[in-house]
UniProtKB/TrEMBL annotation:
Gene3D superfamilies: Ribonuclease H-like superfamily/Ribonuclease H. Belongs to the RuvC family. The active site is at residues 7, 66, 139. It comes from Candidatus Azambacteria bacterium RIFCSPLOWO2_01_FULL_46_25. This is Crossover junction endodeoxyribonuclease RuvC. The gene is ruvC. Binds 2 Mg(2+) ion per subunit. The keyword Membrane does not apply. GO terms for biological process: DNA recombination; DNA repair. Mg(2+) 1 binds at residues 7, 139. GO terms for molecular function: crossover junction DNA endonuclease activity; DNA binding; magnesium ion binding. Its EC number is 3.1.21.10.
Length: 161
């Protein structure tokens, strides 16, 4: 099973890909997509094109995505909401199950503490996946955390069936 996490943003979209098998979870890929220049429709089209290529390359069964949380800047929340909508619509068109999580749920799944700092989450991911180099891109790290949370949640849902 392939699980992808996505961290939506207005200019950078983080993604993280995990593989789940009988041996457990392993890190497959992670990185960031840049939405590029232009107005909102052009940026969303750029995002969709790039994300479609990542989805085609990895063929995820599940996508975990962070729910919107409070932003001080109304313009930012609107742009992030638009990106989330484009991401979720693309996943649905590709028949990929989408699971949404709050930042608290994601932090809880990774660190055991829902109010953990961003750096604590990154350090825990580095330990979980035994990374030799630190995660440098916050958006990619957030996406990996969303993927980890989706994997844990899906395992719970599967156990309940």
């Amino acid at each position: 099973m392939i699980i992808m996490g996505i961290d939506p943003g207005d200019t950078l979209i983080g993604f993280g890909v995990l593989s789940k098998n009988s041996a457990g979870l392993s890190l497959v890929d992670h990185g960031c997509l840049k939405t590029g220049p232009g107005n909102a429709p052009e940026k969303l089209a750029s995002l969709e094109t790039q994300l479609e290529a990542v989805l085609a390359r990895h063929k995820p069964d599940i996508v975990g995505i962070e729910e919107l949380f409070f932003f001080k800047n109304a313009k930012t929340v609107i742009r992030v909401a638009q990106a989330r909508g484009a991401i979720m619509a693309l996943c649905v068109r590709k028949n990929i199950r989408v699971l949404e999580f709050t930042p608290l749920q994601i932090k809880q799944a990774v660190t055991g503490y829902g109010r953990a700092e961003k750096k604590q989450v990154q350090r825990m991911l580095e330990r979980i996946f035994q990374l030799k180099k630190p995660l440098k891109q916050d958006d990619a790290a957030d996406a990996l955390a969303a993927a980890w949370c989706a994997a844990q949640s899906y395992a719970m849902l599967d156990a309940l069936r």
